[in-house]
Design brief:
42% of the residues are buried. This protein has a single domain (2-177), classed as Rossmann fold, CATH 3.40.50. It starts with a strand and ends in a 6-residue tail after the last helix. With 183 residues, the protein is α/β, with parallel strands linked by helices. α1 packs across α2 (62-78) and α1 runs parallel beside α6. β2 (44-51), α2 (62-78) and β3 (85-89) form a beta-alpha-beta unit. The longest helix is centred in the middle third of the chain and has 17 residues, at 62-78. The protein is built from six helices and six strands, in the order βαβαβαβαβαβα. The protein has a six-stranded parallel sheet, with helices on both faces.
């Protein structure tokens, strides 16, 4: 079974310090939609795991978030891809929850709701918290330089295991990733 978890902001779509608050503000990173379609065609099951503290801050509501995810899903499906689920943490960074990355609550939910084991599977992110969540959950951490990724690359010495694959983008990762099998 091949499964991949993707962070959203900075991996699939352009990130913003002001948060992505509506479907109109959501803009895919060049090649990311095609990359997800290629992963689907290569037999991968795909889920998105994303921190969305804008909900806790009152910047947008769950209806707006659902609209954003529907726009993403529709664009991916236009290219023949499929995302099995969107899993999000609605809490702010100051809240003590288990789901906000680097916590692994979202990953546990993915396993439970989609009946998968994520151990050894890739988690593609652009932040240190993505990589930490992947590592803690025994996943394969993959960093892309889009979004906050270039900045995160400079912080990698803070990660216990620097065995992180690094790519310029999700599209570049997929060009390499689909050429070999995971255990």
């Amino acid at each position: 079974m091949k499964f991949i978890v993707l962070d959203r902001d900075g991996v699939i779509n352009e990130d913003s310090d002001d948060h992505i608050k509506s479907a109109d503000e959501w803009k895919p990173i060049s090649g990311s939609i095609e990359a997800i379609a290629k992963l689907t065609a290569s037999g991968y099951r795909i889920a998105v795991a994303t921190n969305q503290s804008g909900l806790a801050r009152g910047l947008f509501d769950e209806v707006a978030l659902a609209d954003i995810h529907q726009k993403l899903r529709s664009e991916v499906e236009e290219y023949g891809g499929f995302i099995e689920g969107f899993f999000f943490c609605p809490h702010g960074p100051e809240e003590a929850c288990l789901c906000r990355k680097p916590g692994t609550g979202l990953l546990t939910r993915i396993e439970q709701e989609l009946s998968v084991s994520l151990g050894g599977q890739p988690f593609v992110g652009d932040s240190l918290t993505d990589l930490q969540a992947a590592q803690t959950h025994n996943m394969k951490p993959v960093l892309v330089r889009t979004g906050k990724g270039a900045q995160t690359e400079r912080q990698l010495q803070n990660l216990n295991d620097a065995n992180v694959e690094i790519y310029d983008s999700l599209a570049e990762f997929v060009g390499v990733e689909t050429s070999f099998q995971h255990a």
